Amino acid sequence: MQDIHFSPRRIGAVTLRHLYLMRSSWPRVLEMVYWPTVQMILWGFITLFLQDNSSYIAQASGVLLSGVLLWDVLFRGQLGIALVFMEEMWSRNLGHLFVSPLRPYEMVASLLFMSLIRTLIGIGGATLIAIPLFQYNIYDMGLPLIAFFLNLIIMGWAIGLIVSGIVLRYGMGAESIAWVSVFAIQPLCAIYYPVATLPDWLQPVALALPASHVFEGMRELLLQHSFNTGHMVWAVLLNILYLGIGIAVFLGYFQAARRKGLLLQVGE
User: Fold this and answer.
1) How far apart are CA 75 and CA 73, in angstroms?
2) In angstroms, how far is CA 159 from the centroid of its own chain?
3) Which residues contact 248 (CB under 8 A, 6 or more apart)?
4) How far apart are alpha carbons 206 and 236 in whole angstroms?
5) Contacts of 11 (CB under 8 A, 6+ apart)
6) What is the Rg, in whole angstroms, of the alpha carbon atoms belonging to the chain?
7) pTM of the entire structure?
8) How far is residue 132 CA from its own chain's centroid?
9) Largest separation between any pair of C-alpha atoms in the chain
């Protein structure tokens, strides 16, 4: 008889497996820090330039740096799930995992934990480097930063679970979705400009994304020194919806892949 109980030990075992992979491969850890750091440096110099040439940016020197660092939370959250899951597919390990007592929802929980760890490593390194390099400390935002971070990473989780489900169902030929899915919605997330900048017909679409509420709230905090709880409430409600959809899509594709025998036939 199969064990149907939720097991923290099994979740911890899968998480520990990937932590061992990270520990044995420094390039994996460096890669997590590399891209956020490169983007931070690039946009840092752009910010320094705009400080002397834009009265808008002069009001809050960290607007662009905050935008790019918080955007990377969403990107890293999504990629953290997709990459960890695809590593199992690349190593053809899914069949081995699921002949064990591991349940699909436990796999989902371990993916979320690994995404959180990878995101904290990557973004944490970049934010610390920004302090001596650009004299900008994103942690000065205080408690609102936690709300921004959580909403963005949860949105990333929702996208990552959907992408992982698609790759599981349709094979490694669909893995490019993991790299392009987030950037497809980037223009609508209002990272570097207000939602009002978008055409009228696109603004409702942008406001249906949790990220747009986060970045609108971030700008309001930096420029007007006020925390807009309305934006955060909308972000939380939308994230509950999208994360639920993401989990349902992943588990649905998993069941379809199991019925078709795809767990043992991972390929193009």
Assistant:
1) 6
2) 8
3) none
4) 15
5) 106, 109, 110, 113
6) 20
7) 0.83
8) 26
9) 69
User: pLDDT (tens digit, 0 to 9) for every residue of the chain, 268 residues total?
Assistant: 556 677 888 888 888 888 887 777 666 676 677 667 766 775 676 666 566 665 665 556 678 889 889 999 999 999 899 888 888 888 777 777 877 888 888 989 999 999 999 999 999 989 999 899 888 899 999 999 999 999 999 999 999 999 988 888 877 666 777 777 787 888 889 888 888 888 899 899 999 999 999 999 998 998 888 999 999 999 999 999 999 999 999 999 888 888 877 666 655 4
Tokens representing residue 20 in the block: 């061992």
SS3 labels along the chain:
CCCCCCCHHHHHHHHHHHHHHHHHCHHHHHHHHHHHHHHHHHHHHHHHHHHCCCHHHHCCCCHHHHHHHHHHHHHHHHHHHHHHHHHHHHCCCHHHHCCCCCCHHHHHHHHHHHHHHHHHHHHHHHHHHHHHHHCCCHHHHCHHHHHHHHHHHHHHHHHHHHHHHHHHHHCHHHCCHHHHHHHHHHHHCCCCCCHHHCCCCCHHHHHCCHHHHHHHHHHHHHHHCCCCHHHHHHHHHHHHHHHHHHHHHHHHHHHHHHHCCHHHCCCC
Name the token pair of 194.
């207000």
Q: Closest Cα to residue 242, out of 212, 200, 216, 201?
A: 212
